[in-house]
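for ur thesis appendix - Clavaminate synthase-like protein. copy paste whatever u need, i formatted it the way the template wanted (i think)
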Amino acid sequence: MPPSMQHEQSNSKVAHLETIDFAKLLAHEEAEISKLVSACATAGFFYVDLRGQSARTLIEDEESMYQAMAEYFDQPLDVKMKDDRGTHKHGYKPPGVFAGVKENSKDNYETLKVARDEVGANSPLLPSAVKRYPRLFDDFISKSHLVTMTIMRSLSNALCVDPADRFEQHHRDEADSNTTLVLLRYPKDVSSTCVGHNQHTDIGSLTLLFSKQWGLQILSPETHEWEWVAPRPAHAIINIGDSLRFLSGKRLASCMHRVVPTTETPTEHRYSVAYFLRPENDLKYEDPEGRAISAQQWHDDKYRTFADSHEKQATNSILLGGMDVASREGIVV
Ligand SMILES: O=C(O)CCC(=O)C(=O)O
Ligand SMILES: [Fe+2]
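the 3d part is after this line
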């Protein structure tokens, strides 16, 4: 799947993001940890180099994952709708459910969500497309978990978080959470009413994102302009979500992002894979409006907001997690 280059016709710049070498983080290299903290406190978005031994199966498996996704999403809509489980943690969502990237549009992406706990328990509720590739899904989720939890540990150390409040203490294996692997396809045969993926900040703690295709943009906290995130072979993107920002006392930044079509008439579907590491559902934190809220409630409120009209979304701070205000004020570390 060659990356599409039509973004070059657009006026937006390509974002300069830090690159963190996962192998160096695992080895507790201080210089790498400093780079990590600085990236998390400023852009809240960075590349992670996965070529080291411990996580390289993720890049080896990436292509197989896209193939499994094509197989799944190529099925007729009525077959996929049988996997719609009416939750935001599991199963299928068709395009057009949430607000899209253009005013008054709906979104143009379909998703299959595969929760970490169901894969771990080999649940009979998993779609057959997932059950067909048990090793692929199991490995992809456990390696994604290793990468994201290693980053959480490095951040707890670097920010000298109290032992009881270390970020990992809010992501224990035995507690319920909404951690899930999300497979996304942006169909090429777009209707004019369904466009891209609306601007937002992520709900959870960390997102580990894979895509070989252009389309992702971040709102640069420096220039306040939309910039393209270039796909890079053997690297994934990591970004901080609302939950980790709230947990860190807003020392870490989440970043507004969106997905836009690179051309008016796309010739290929766009595929991306996101591992959403989310905290324990019972965790309490303060939202941007100062309300004490549980992680589960924030998750549910945010998904409800994704489905609201653009007009309604602009009436509160849920969609952007308060980052529209924070980016104007500058982030204090
Ligand atoms: O598809 C992408 O590249 C990004 C998706 C995303 O931002 C999300 O699902 O939260
Ligand atoms: Fe996102």
